[in-house]
Amino acid sequence: MSKMNKRIRAQGALLLAMINVPALAATLPESSVEKHMGVATCASSQCHGSAIPRDGTGVLQNEYVTWTQSDPHSKAYEILSNEQSRLIASRLGIGRAREADVCLDCHADNVAPDKRGDKFQLSDGVGCEACHGGAENWLSTHYKAPEVTHQANLQAGLYANEDAVDRANLCLSCHLGTRDKFATHKIMAAGHPRLVFELDTFTELWRTAGRQPHYRVDADYRERKDIDGHVYTWAAGLLAEARRRLDLIQSHYFDVPGMFPELAFYDCHACHRTMKTVQWRSLPRHGGVGPGTPFINDGTFVMSLALARAIEPGETEGLINALKRIHRASITSVDAIREAATELDSILARMGSRLTPARLRGREAKILEEILATGAEGNYLDYVSAEQAFMAVQTLVIELDDPILEAELDLLADSLNNDERYRPSEFRRLLSALQEED
Ligand code: HEC
Ligand code: HEC
Ligand code: HEC
Ligand code: HEC
After folding, report:
1. Rounded to a whole number, what is the distance in angstroms from the first to the last CA of the chain?
2. How close is the Cα of 122 to the center of ligand 3, in Å?
């Protein structure tokens, strides 16, 4: 898969000490009280529609051009009219995909009709305000620095994308789902791609997808904004994703009518892989559940365990026990899974409340070591864990700036190219080669 390609080196970001006060999650752009004015209101050449990047104002001012030409989000609505979407919609019997809320909720800025300004167009897809928040109250003032501060813009409804936790919540709202929108197994079985996410990898893939980046992380940007650094971004995004999965397990999306809970929460490859080779092995985190049971997709939980081993050793045992409980519950009942999910979430919430850039600084090598050690114990037997491990390893190796380790990333990426023919023994062998060089 394309996202497994080794990504371009990101400009080394400073790790600024920031106290991460666990606050109520910020209101997502999709539910902002302010009107969404439409991409056209950002696109003038004096604003964000310059043909070439500008110097001197801090921001590039060609974000509109970059977005139109190379940001997949500008095509998100358009693809609802392609053959794949037509097939998905016809198999689901939902009429036209581009008119169905179930698709528009993630493929466009599908805010309520009374939240759409005169120039708003659904056909813009995932436009500026789908990520930056409804501009009604900041459009005409947000560029008037220093009179108008970033803080004032935030208060007027600009979304705080520079904050790793807020950004994770935004991206995951579509790349995983919320209590209001979700790509179910039914949608996937009709032909929708499997969803995968990791905040740091996806931010960098997306930011640097075009000839020009969406924004530059340079000295000026750092001065204007407290930014968090790649390893913190990975860790904060990881805990946000793991906790969102657990929250969705408590929602109506998990417990669907019928014999089985919602299968999109499970490891897809537990059911969809070749029968010719037997991959099953007893692992401590599976809590003694034998072969033949589909497990909850726990890729982000396994990575949280590796993170805990590096920076929160006191939480390790509790995490392993909570993982055992959630997997044992798979053969009991939905209620038991939900109880175990609550227990697991309370540990992750505690880890999240103590996570700061300062706590990670200087521990990058230790985190990498624990990710590799977790793999050496056989924990990346399942493709989803291996995929999460790869993205984490990539972020850490780039941060550690070690050319020998970097050279190994391509092989590791190649070993994940075909998810249905994933060979855990090969992945493990490559990881142990990394471990020796680390
Ligand atoms: C929970 C949010 C969500 C919902 C609901 C959703 N999608 Fe998607 N869809 C995504 C995301 C995110 C991607 C990109 C996945 C990736 O590449 O990592 C995607 C990708 C796709 C793709 C592949 C695009 C490509 O460039 O290859 C198609 C086609 C698609 N969606 C159609 C639909 C249709 C039709 C519906 C409604 C039945 C729908 N989607 C519902 C989030 C969603
Ligand atoms: C997929 C979400 C997404 C979309 C769509 C998007 N942005 Fe962004 N944008 C971000 C993120 C994330 C950042 C980096 C964090 C930050 O500084 O806000 C950013 C940064 C920026 C910056 C630099 C901010 C600074 O302080 O240096 C500008 C300007 C900007 N975006 C404008 C736009 C415009 C104009 C559009 C539409 C043409 C757009 N963005 C579409 C997510 C998005
Ligand atoms: C409103 C929903 C929505 C939000 C918010 C959103 N995305 Fe997306 N994203 C999508 C959809 C839909 C696609 C697929 C579009 C397509 O294929 O044309 C996509 C595609 C992508 C891709 C390309 C994936 C691939 O397989 O090539 C990346 C990378 C990405 N998004 C990153 C992000 C990041 C980072 C954020 C947060 C800053 C974000 N997205 C926020 C809906 C969203
Ligand atoms: C507990 C087992 C199980 C899990 C877990 C599971 N699926 Fe399925 N899946 C099935 C079954 C059963 C079918 C129906 C097969 C058929 O129609 O012949 C199916 C059908 C599909 C199909 C259509 C295949 C076809 O040939 O029609 C796709 C695509 C798919 N699933 C994707 C996924 C994805 C993506 C995930 C993970 C998010 C997933 N599945 C998780 C059991 C599972």
Report:
1. 26
2. 16
CA distance 387 to 385: 5
The answer to whether 212 and 60 are in contact (CB under 8 A) is yes
- Any atom of ligand 3 within 6 Å of the Cβ of 173: yes
Tell me the per-residue pLDDT of 42-96, one tens digit each, with 9 for 90 and over: 999 989 999 999 887 789 999 999 999 999 999 999 999 999 999 999 999 999 9
Q: Which amino acid is at 414?
A: D
pLDDT category of residue 172 using cuts at 50, 70 and 90:
very high
CA angle 275/88/199 to nearest 5° reads: 75
From 161, 170, 200, 216, give the residue whose CB has the most ligand 2 atoms within 8 Å, as the site to mutate. Answer: 161
CA of 171 relative to ligand 1 center, distance in Å: 13
CA dist 434 and 370 (Å) reads 12
Q: Tell me, what's the pLDDT at 13?
A: 30
**CA 169 remoteness from chain centre:** 8
If you take atom 36 of ligand 1, which residue's CA is the nearest one?
Answer: 103
pLDDT, position 239 = 98
Angle at 240 (CA atoms; ends 414, 127), nearest 5 degrees = 80
**Left (φ > 0), alpha (ψ -120 to 50) or beta: where does 61 sit?**
left
- Torsion, Cα 28 33 34 39, to 10 degrees, reads 40
* CA 294 to ligand 4: nearest atom: 1
pLDDT tens for 384-431 read: 999 999 999 999 999 999 898 998 899 999 999 999 889 999 999 999
356 lines ligand 3 (CB under 6 A): no
If we measure between CA atoms, which residue out of 339, 334, 335, 307 comes closest to residue 322? Answer: 339
Question: What length does the chain have?
Answer: 438
Cα 350 to middle of ligand 1, angstroms:
33
Does ligand 2 lie within 6 Å of residue 73's CB atom? yes
